[in-house]
Structure formats: C-alpha cells, structure tokens
What we know:
By secondary structure, chain A is an alpha/beta fold. Chain A has helices at 13-22, 38-42, 51-55, 68-75, 99-111, 124-130, 141-154, 166-194, 199-207, 214-218, 241-257, 263-280, 289-292, 294-297, and strands at 3-7, 26-30, 46-47, 60-63, 90-93, 115-118, 121-122, 133-138, 155-162. Chain A has two domains: 3-163, Rossmann fold, CATH 3.40.50.720; 169-297, N-(1-d-carboxylethyl)-l-norvaline Dehydrogenase, domain 2.
Amino acid sequence: MQTVGFIGLGKMGAPMALNLLKAGFAVQVFDRLSDLADPIVRAGATNHNNAHSASVNADIMISMLPASEHVESLYLGATGLLQHLTPGTLIIDCSTIAPASARRLHDAADGLGLAALDAPVSGGTTGAQAGTLTFIVGGLATNLQRARPVLNAMGKNIFHAGDAGAGQTAKIANNMMLGIMMVGTAEALSLGVANGLDPKVLSEIMTLSSGQNWALDHKNPWPGLNTNMPAANGYQGGFSVDHMLKDLGLAALTALQSGRATPMGELARNLFALHAQQGHGDLDLSSIIKLIDKKNSG
Amino acid sequence: MQTVGFIGLGKMGAPMALNLLKAGFAVQVFDRLSDLADPIVRAGATNHNNAHSASVNADIMISMLPASEHVESLYLGATGLLQHLTPGTLIIDCSTIAPASARRLHDAADGLGLAALDAPVSGGTTGAQAGTLTFIVGGLATNLQRARPVLNAMGKNIFHAGDAGAGQTAKIANNMMLGIMMVGTAEALSLGVANGLDPKVLSEIMTLSSGQNWALDHKNPWPGLNTNMPAANGYQGGFSVDHMLKDLGLAALTALQSGRATPMGELARNLFALHAQQGHGDLDLSSIIKLIDKKNSG
Amino acid sequence: MQTVGFIGLGKMGAPMALNLLKAGFAVQVFDRLSDLADPIVRAGATNHNNAHSASVNADIMISMLPASEHVESLYLGATGLLQHLTPGTLIIDCSTIAPASARRLHDAADGLGLAALDAPVSGGTTGAQAGTLTFIVGGLATNLQRARPVLNAMGKNIFHAGDAGAGQTAKIANNMMLGIMMVGTAEALSLGVANGLDPKVLSEIMTLSSGQNWALDHKNPWPGLNTNMPAANGYQGGFSVDHMLKDLGLAALTALQSGRATPMGELARNLFALHAQQGHGDLDLSSIIKLIDKKNSG
Amino acid sequence: MQTVGFIGLGKMGAPMALNLLKAGFAVQVFDRLSDLADPIVRAGATNHNNAHSASVNADIMISMLPASEHVESLYLGATGLLQHLTPGTLIIDCSTIAPASARRLHDAADGLGLAALDAPVSGGTTGAQAGTLTFIVGGLATNLQRARPVLNAMGKNIFHAGDAGAGQTAKIANNMMLGIMMVGTAEALSLGVANGLDPKVLSEIMTLSSGQNWALDHKNPWPGLNTNMPAANGYQGGFSVDHMLKDLGLAALTALQSGRATPMGELARNLFALHAQQGHGDLDLSSIIKLIDKKNSG
C-alpha cells in the first residue's frame, strides 16, 4: 500500500483525500487551517502540523491549493518542501495555477531527482465527492503511469495534455471556453424569454441543435428549470463565480504573455468581474444570468 | 398524395425539394433564377414561371428565401401570394427572418383564413441534403400537426418552439450561441497551441470536459484536424460566414428591439463582420480562426 | 416677427421654447401633457390643444420628441401634421431619431412643398437652458439659412452635416463616441485609483495628455471631484443613462443596417444596458462608474 | 554643468539626448547597438561601451528602454548598474514598464542610498524631437525637484502623479484611454461615412461636440483628411500599433493584478492584436481604421 501526503483540504481537497482513503491508500494530511483535517482524520488519515511532516515516507505528494503563489511557496525556495523529499518521490499538483508557475515546479523537481506532474481537475466539488473528477495532466508519460492508481481513486477521466505545464494550459483553455459559454447561454435564454419563449422549451431546442454546450446541459442558468442544478437552489454550491474569475484571469494572463487575442474570453472575464463586484462571488457561475438579465431572472 | 408548392431553390431549398420528391410528394417549384429548377425538375418536379403558378392546387406552400424582405415581398401586400391562395392552405416559411416579419406573415395569413408556420432550420446544406434538418417551428400545434409529413421528409428533428414567430426567435437565439461558441473555440485552441499544446489533444480534452460544445465537436476550426470538417478542406462548404453574420445581425436587432443585453453575441457579430471584410464571407464559419490567430492557423 | 409652432415641452423642449420667447419670437406650444406648457405660457407663449392648432400661421414648426415613432406619428400619414401645413412652412425636427425616419419625414415634406431639416442637438439640459446648444443639421443649405435665426436663439454652434438625415447620423456617431469615452474614462480612473493614484491628479494628467476627451473634462465620473458635475451630486441631472442607451441603440441599429463593425460602440451599449437594469437609468451617464467599479466609487 | 548618463538611444531616446545637449548638459551615452550613438556623438556627447562606463561621474542617469525586463536587467541584480552608482545619484527611468517593475527599481535604489523616479513620457517621436514631451512622474517630490532641469530640456509638461510607480500607472491608464478612443473614433467615422457623411465634416462636428477627443484631433484615422497626420502618409511614423499593443497589455496586466474590470480597454487590446497580426504592427495606431473598415478606408 502506497503512502500519500496530501496538502490542502479545502472544498476540493477534502473529498479527494477521502476518496484516497476509501481506495486503501495511507494518507498523511496537512492544512494551515487545522480544523479542516478533522473529518479526514476520522476517516483514517493521519494529521500533521506542517507539510514537511506530512511528506515523511510518502511515495506520492499531492497538493490542492488556491493559487500560483501558494504552490510556489509550498515547494520552492531554500525552505521549500522539495528540499525535504526523497529522490524519486512523485509530486502531483492538482491546483489550478499559471502554466509558468507549473513549469517552475517541474524544473526545480527535475533538478533534485524528483518526479512532477501538473494535474489540475475539472468537475467541481460534486465530481470531487463522487470521485468522478477529470484530471488534465502535464508531464512525462512515465510519471503519469505511476500516478494512475491515485488519480483513478479520485477521478474518472485522465487526460495527458502534454509536457510540463500542459495540464494547466489545457485546463485554462477549457475553463475559458466554459466561461464564454456560460455568459452566452445566459444571453441566449434572456433573448428568447424576452421575446416570449418558454426557457425550458428553448433549452431543449438548443441542446439538440447547434447551440448545444456543456454549460446549457449541466448548468442551465435560468432559475428553477432543473431541480438538480444550482439555478434551482439560489445558485448555491457548484463552481463559484470567484473560481471562474480566477481561471479567466489565468487565461487572460496567458494570452498576454503569449501574444494571443482572446476577445471573447476577456469580455467574459470582465462580465464575471462586474458580477462579483455586485456581491455574487460565492454563487455558482450560472448566476451570471443575474447580471445579464436582472429583470426576468431575478 | 399531397401537392407542395416550393419557392426558393438555393443551396438549402433545392435539396429540401428533392427530399420531398423522394418521399412521394408532388412538387411545384419556382425560383427567380430559373436554372436552379433544372435538377429538381429532372427529379420529377414541375417548374413554374412565378410563385402564383407554383401555388395553384397546392395543399402546402413552402418558402426558403434569403431574408425578411424577400419573404414579405413574396407573400404580403396587394399583389402578394396570400391573395391567391385557397383558404385552408398551409404556409410553411423555412427562411430565417426577423421574428417581427414572421409575425406579420402569420397575422396576414390569419386574416385570410390561411394557416401559417415559421419553421426555420438548423443543420446546413449537409443536413438539407441528408434529410436530417432540424425544424424549429412557431405557430399553432394543429398547423404543425398538418406539417409533420412534409417536415419529416426533409428533416429529423422537429421542435415546437411556441406561438407565431417563436420558431424564428429560437433559431436566432440558438445561432447566436453557435456564433459565440465558434469564436470561443477558436480562441481556446489558439491559446493552447501558442503555449505548446497539440490542437488535437486539446480538442479531445475539451470535448470530454466542461468546454464541450457543438462547434468544437462538429466544426473544429483548427486546420487539418478532422478530415470530414470544413477546416480540412480550406473552409469550403458548410455554413458560411455571411450566413452567420446575418443571423448574428438578426439576434442583435432582436436584442435592441426588446431591450436586452447580449454583449458576447454582439462582440461575436462584430468579429465575424471584421472577418467578412477581409474577404472571407463565403468560407465556413469555422474560418474565424483566421482572424483570431492568423499566424498559427494560416 | 416670425411665428414658431413648438411641439414637445419636455426637459429639453421647454427651455428651448423659453429661449425663443426671449429672442422675440411668437411661440405657439403644444404638449400632450398640458401642464408642461404652463411655465412657457407664463413667459408669453400661447398654449394649444393639439399640434394642428399650434401650427396655424406658423412660419416655422419645431418638434422635440422622444423617439422615431413619435416624430413619424406627429407628421406623417393621412392625419399627420404635414397635411395641414401651408406650403413653404419650414419644419425643424430637433428630436434624436433614426436617420431612416428622418429621411421619411424629409421625403414626405418635399412631396407637399414643405421644407424640412433634421436638427438634433448636443449639450443636454444645461445647454438648452443656457441657449448654448449645438445643432447638427441635415437638409438643404437654403433651408438651414432660413432656420438660423431660431437656431441662434436656442444654441451657439450650428453644424451643417449634409443632406437629409445627415444631422441624425452625425449626432448618433458623435454620441456613440461619447458613450465609448464615458466607459473608457471610468475604466481608466478605476484602474488608476486601485493602484494608488489620486483620481484628481490622474484626471489632470489625462486632460493634458493623449487621454484627453470631452467626457473626462465635462463629466468626470469619479464621485466628488468637481463640484459642478453630476458626480458631485449623486449623478442627478445631466444626460441620463436611458438617453445614452437610446442613442447607443440607434448607433447599433444604424451599424446593423449599413453592415458596419462597431465593436466598442456595441460593448458600450451593452454595459449601459446592464447599468440601467440595476435601476440607474435616470442618473447621469457618468454614473457608469458604479457598474465598472462598485467598490471604489460607491 | 551637470553630467547626464543616458542609456537607450532608440527612436525616443536619441532625440531626447540631443535636446539635453542643446540645453548644455554633458551627456554620456550607451546603446547596445553602437551605431545609434553616432548622431548624438556628432552633436557633442561622449560614447561609451557599456552602461557602467556611461555612468561614471554622472549626476543623473536616464534610461529609455523597450520593456520591464530591459530595465530590470540594466539596474538590478548582483551585476546591475545600481551597484556601481555613487550614493546620491538620481535615476530617471523614462521607459514605459509595469508599475510593479518600477517599484522594484525604486526599492532597490532606496536600499543603496540612490534616488529614483519613474518618468514615462507621452508625446511620441514628434514630441521627443521638438522637446515637447509630457513626463508623468512617480517618486518623491524632492527627487522630482532635482530632475526638473533635465526634464524641462526634453519636455514641456511635467506631472507629478504620486509615489513610486505612480508615473507608470498614470501613463498606462492614459494610454489605455488613448487606445479606446482611437478605435472608437475609427468606428464613429466608419459609421458616418457608410451613411453618407463627409468624414471631414463629421470630424469637425465631433471635435466641437461631446465626441471630442485627443485621438480625433491629433490622429484622425481617416485616410487623407489632414496632411500633417499619419493617415495622410500611409500611416507611417507616429506611435506604432505595436507600442499601443504593449501599453494596452500593461494595462490589462495591471487590471488583472488589481482585480479591476476594464472591458473596453481589453477589447481595444484585442482589436489592436488582431490588427498587428494582419502585418500592421509598424504603422501608426490610427491605422486601426483598416481593421474596422477595410472597404471604405482602404
């Protein structure tokens, strides 16, 4: 049985660690907020006071942190975790961060004889709980092969996007597309309803036509249409506006750094930023309908 | 066997009329450009010198014309076709036009004891040829019931969007969504490739993740990825930039008239307008990648 | 002394009529809301029960109405005012309406031996009160020559934009530019302040640099900077968001009808539409800062 | 007479150094491309093989470099120029760089007892040659006081924007506004001309109305209107599309880092990026009309 060190026990990290326990891995956890470890410890994990302690004897280190700076702070520098790991340890960073940060981690790990993968996820808290996450992985195929047992314990689909950082790039491109589609879907429904259509009928038509998209099918923003979606529950839960905004920001940053034009992606970022400013950062991203059509969707 | 009058034999109308013949309907055709009738006549239709002649003894009249003004000019006014039709005749206008124009046709038909449906299509020339079009229908359910045999001869899916004009509104909302997704997909692929990803791998990841959408699956814009898509064939055929631009214009007009905000839809319209100005109006809409990423996709 | 019939006594029309009186013209007024006439009548105008009555013996008819449909309804059709005017009467429509509507009025007037000008204004209620409006005029130069005495009584600058409808087109293009600059100025100030700048200092720098523009100089959106601007007064008064939205809508409509790309103009329209949906339609257009930067400007 | 070390002799730096010589300063120059020094040496400067040599005995160091990385590389690090300067030396960096980079330079200079100002310029090559640049300065007022004689030799207006980095922030906010206005002006002229207006007449109207802005007045994009503007000269010279794109990129980066919404600024960046991709990066920014209205302006 392999031992996994797990750093970061937020809304995503906690259920992921629980699924590792269910699959039989020994799990050593750490989070700066020690309370977050309690339910995982009750399920069988050992709790640790710091990342270093959680990494002792670990075959694999997994991290699930909010942003680039947290990942760099955890692993890199003279006091970073990399300095303490046994050569051969496999690092799987599941955080969504800038591709450039991911490449810095890969390079530093390489230099110390460690193996690394960037493995951001898609699927949200629901997928994390159900163990049906999608992992989008960057790094060497041999390292991915080693990672498969733990990834399979937490998810359903595993994609090998390419070399170091490719997982982050693919995640960011995918989520930029999601943000664009979410706003677009809200606009299409708003336009239809304002002209007399039933939002349920319009949704059914679009999902079977060339307007079909994941946001419409899984996150229909019109309030009350589908009882199992956030829009039927005051937009609670799900993938938050603030997370969408973070990912659209990473996409814009990557576009700037690589000299690309992403006019729709950046407009989506700005619309989500306006929406967050209205105090809706914690709601599911489908709540963008409140910005687009305050009157009909309110 | 019912007799169908068919007006408008362009790239969409011609294969639709042929499918009616295959299904056993008697078809009486007219187009201002008389040459367009030749292949349909060879398949068994009768050709007529004007719309009035093509409508004599017709149980059902179908029209497939470029824009609102052509439909209004055909049917309405003191010399319009409505004046010549036998009460009870069913009019099925398959053109994509402004919802307001469609409602004018419905109202005028009503006043003369005629039945009308707006029934714009989705599926493009490929769908027209294969008889797999989607019809998005506005009007009374009883009229749609009468129309089903002819619609089934030309298409696969039939949606009843609602009352008079609802077919047009739903079509326009759907196609606005398609335009948004096409540009967004081009941006996502451009961003990924500029950062080292294989466009084929990124496409596969997105199609199985939350970036999944019809444009990516059926019209991947990256050149050469899928041999059966326009992008592998110099963007020939398919659904043209000029048609997309027309539909996005109808969406913007409808948004203006109903006081809606469609920021992404209108940006998509403007980007397709810039693309058309570069001389690409005849290409498939997936050619928008040429505007978004001239360097990598050219 | 010439007699002027004046139709439409709203926030713009009323002070314009008063300035005509001050300049010595006989003024015959009508508004559907009869109360609006009271202050003008006290200043010397005669009040009338309908437009026809207000036009009797008038050398010149002036109208200042909300939108295309009101202007068309006033003048055109079998019961329109044009049918009652003495040949040679000069019509000056100061409303801001669609260029196509303006051209319809010109054409109908021509056919009846009447003279017409489209003469929309710039300068807002402040300019209307001070008699410093700018008139942007479309129509024949000889007609404009006849109009100068009354226009000079109400304004300071008179521009001859071109033929029939050109006044409206120029007004719309100008106001689209204003809308773009207003949002842009709000964004620039928001960006500066979020990064530590004093909004007053940044405004002074921009006004003397290449960021200089009318919106910054006359409608600085930052709250409290200039005591004589709407932003120091809770955004009361001035040129309302709803009026800006109307003009940006006319610009978008004109762009659609003439096949133009106006990406910035249409984005500005959408942002003002989102802002109006938040309940701010009555505020001065500089209140758009509330949408762009809710936190810092609130 | 003070001695000034001057690093960076490109299209901006060269005429700035010449104006220092005219004003009587001793000037010690260095550029990696040694040929660029020739005309300045002929005018009386001394040429140096490296930045260190150019700084010996200098009271003031001025740098005018392309981007953040060049400035950081020049001054910072173990081998950077700061290590060689005599305490008390005043550094004036006139490059346009990220505010964060400027603050790093200020901090490092502070730590070594050096004085620093960020002083990016507005006015382009024409202003640099005429000695009429605008300096937008961040840093201590006492340091600015010391800098005034050299700044006055090169420019006309000096603004004190605030503390360290404030010059860069103000410059970036100002130039984002310029980019927005340039695209907006192109759209307004395109819309007017497509509807029958004379671009010269429309420009005159806007410049005296609420559409007035610096871009319209100094960089009218319509081809051939003003013989002294780039648009009359094939868009040669002036402020290039690539420079505009760089500044709009800095604005977007700053917006991302400070969590701001700049929808119009980011759309302008994307439109200039599309324009640059068409091969127009070297043209004056007013050439954006070629993207917006290829037909009428081509």
